[in-house]
């Protein structure tokens, strides 16, 4: 299970004794604070701290002119303007710290987002638990024939069972050898920092991850997208649910302009203008590559 009964009791005890504060708080995020949201089979995300809210974004943009200027432009309108014109600094005024439990291969994708502060569970110091990510059958798929980094047809029947059995047996055998190699129970064995190299990439690790809202939105734009790998996408979606409650105005603008919008190249704009003028335009005379043209058609038909 993601959290032990003792850990869950600690979380509920912390939530049962709120402390008074002069800081700005977000009622939506307070409802999520400390609680674990399960992801995959053994993973979770939970918010352990945050700073700021929608008002902090507006305050930074107006440089604290105060509530008296709100008649000039309301908060929602200003936040949408900032998002629409790619202003980043006001969104950097909000921060979030997450405790995440995730498979190592997902962590290696995640860590490519370098604009965050990370502290990971140390397998040099501690022994990792026997917990592996084993995909549900509906997420076992063959290699895509059109996308070199994507999935294609879902495996079924004997092929699905064969792959699942190999995943389970290989992970457990690797962990058995890891345990057998460790310096413990009276044997000299290997140091933990060496024995860990035998562990599979689907074993679970944990970390604390702190990031500002601007860079978090960039993470969500890439990892909550329908084309992202399923195993990291479900983490991004769980985080997005918390962010939506934390900064509802900013998240609505993000959904509209980043997740729901598209960026057009000069060639794409030219094709749209030619189409609006009644011209029939194909890939060959569009000036786009086959990949660009395919992506263009996915949006515009």
TrEMBL record:
**InterPro entries registered for this protein in UniProt:** Thymidylate_synthase_ThyX, Thymidylate_synthase_ThyX_sf
Q: What is its EC number?
A: 2.1.1.148
Q: Which family does it belong to?
A: Belongs to the thymidylate synthase ThyX family.
Sites binding FAD sit at 89, 112-114, 120, 212-214, 218
Active-site feature positions: 223
Under which name does UniProt file this protein? Flavin-dependent thymidylate synthase
Q: Which UniProt keywords apply?
A: FAD, Flavoprotein, Methyltransferase, NADP, Nucleotide biosynthesis, Transferase
Function in brief: Catalyzes the reductive methylation of 2'-deoxyuridine-5'-monophosphate (dUMP) to 2'-deoxythymidine-5'-monophosphate (dTMP) while utilizing 5,10-methylenetetrahydrofolate (mTHF) as the methyl donor, and NADPH and FADH(2) as the reductant.
């Amino acid at each position: 299970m993601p959290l032990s009964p003792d850990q869950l009791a600690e979380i509920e005890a912390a939530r049962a004794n709120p402390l008074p504060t002069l800081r700005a708080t977000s009622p939506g995020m307070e409802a999520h604070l400390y609680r674990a949201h399960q992801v995959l089979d053994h993973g979770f995300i939970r918010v352990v701290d945050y700073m700021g809210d929608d008002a902090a974004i507006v305050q930074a943009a107006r440089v604290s002119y105060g509530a008296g200027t709100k008649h000039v432009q309301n908060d929602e309108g200003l936040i949408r303007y900032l998002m629409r014109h790619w202003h980043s600094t006001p969104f950097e005024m909000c921060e979030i710290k997450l405790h995440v439990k995730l498979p190592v291969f997902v962590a290696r994708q995640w860590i490519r987002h370098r604009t965050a502060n990370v502290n990971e569970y140390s397998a040099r110091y501690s022994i990792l638990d026997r917990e592996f990510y084993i995909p549900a059958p509906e997420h076992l798929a063959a290699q895509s024939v059109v996308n070199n980094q994507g999935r294609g047809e879902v495996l079924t029947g004997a092929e699905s069972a064969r792959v699942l059995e190999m995943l389970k047996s290989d992970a457990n055998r690797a962990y058995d050898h890891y345990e057998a190699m460790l310096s413990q129970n009276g044997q000299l064995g290997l140091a933990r920092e060496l024995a860990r190299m035998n562990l599979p990439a689907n074993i679970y690790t944990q970390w604390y991850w702190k990031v500002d809202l601007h860079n978090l939105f960039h993470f969500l734009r890439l990892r909550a997208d329908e084309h992202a790998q399923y195993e990291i996408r479900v983490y991004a979606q769980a985080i997005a649910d918390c962010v939506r409650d934390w900064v509802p105005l900013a998240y609505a603008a993000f959904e509209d302009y980043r997740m729901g919008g598209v960026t057009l190249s000069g060639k794409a704009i030219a094709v749209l203008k030619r189409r609006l003028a009644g011209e029939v335009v194909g890939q060959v005379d569009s000036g786009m590559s086959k990949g660009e043209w395919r992506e263009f058609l996915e949006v515009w038909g």
